[in-house]
Amino acid sequence: MIEVRELTKRYGSALAVDRLSFTVKPGHVTGFLGPNGAGKSTTMRAVLGLDAPTSGEALINGRHYARSPHPMHEVGALLDAGAVHGGRTAANHLLCLARSNGIGRARVTAVLEQVGLGGVARKRVAGFSLGMKQRLGIAAALLGDPEVLLFDEPVNGLDPEGIRWIRELMRSLADEGRTVLVSSHLMSEMALTAHRVLVVGRGRLIVDTTIEELEQRYRRDVFVRSPDDRELARVLEAEGARVETPPDGGLSVHGLDAPRISELAFGAGILLHQLTPRSASLEDAYLELTDESVEYRAEGAAR
Ligand SMILES: Nc1ncnc2c1ncn2[C@@H]1O[C@H](COP(=O)(O)OP(=O)(O)OP(=O)(O)O)[C@@H](O)[C@H]1O
């Protein structure tokens, strides 16, 4: 598991991470979300011991990663897919990493197959597309079969098929009981991949919650259609609901959840044709949560 405690990182006068605390547990994918410059990469680098915190600490399985005796077996990370020696072949790049960590050649072949690069193992990395470099970075992260995985923007440069593949890969790694932390700018992507999300802005934690809880919190109303709208509205209002009648028909019900509406309609002998709980989109929820912490915004852009 990953534990970040009161982590602070300053670069000169800039505060990149500001007393950030959270825990990432095994068994599910945790999304790490925030606008540009929010401090996601800095936090990940601190977890990996690549950046020394100004104060606070970041631990993996209770200790500093830099002190791990078997680093690649403990943690796999994809930080910057472009940081690869272009003159090497994909297989050679992984072999160099494998050798310095006591990992055999067979594992290199296995991870190249796993990420779909088996056919280009002997090709130079310089000719790879961004998506192929992402896959190679993921292969490197998986090389030591680690318990903890950190991915910084892994879907960058991937096409829709690649995005679906990485989504399924991350979920399967979590299902195997691993700890998976993945950063993203996109709530819509995380809603499909992650179970929990940590939202940061200007180096601070804004929200630490599950996707399910976030959907509940931003629940707007329940939309109901019935051949007997009027009578249904009366029954629901008698139970304390606030009922609006949209111009296109149906009822917008506030203050009662879908199961209760269904029970009341059933009790009154009223037929329902539609019963739909509606939430603000998670993307809207995310924009609202991070609105105050967006550092770079185009002139005239909505806020
Ligand atoms: N090496 C550095 N020197 C100076 N400032 C830095 C350095 N690394 C990061 N920063 C600053 O720290 C803040 C956090 O940056 P960081 O890259 O961690 O954010 P991020 O959430 O990963 O952003 P993005 O989504 O754009 O990658 C930014 O204001 C950035 O300019």
UniProtKB/TrEMBL annotation:
Q: Per its UniProt record, what PROSITE patterns does this chain match?
A: ABC_TRANSPORTER_1 (PS00211), ABC_TRANSPORTER_2 (PS50893)
- Asked whether the UniProt record includes ATP-binding among its keywords, one would answer yes
Asked if the keyword Methyltransferase belongs to this entry, the reply reads no
| A molecular-function term among this protein's GO annotations | ATP binding
Superkingdom of this protein's organism: Bacteria
Q: Where is the ABC transporter domain?
A: 2-227
Q: Which UniProt keywords apply?
A: ATP-binding, Nucleotide-binding, Transport
Name the protein family: Belongs to the ABC transporter superfamily.
What is the name listed in the Swiss-Prot or TrEMBL entry for this protein? Answer: ATP-binding cassette domain-containing protein
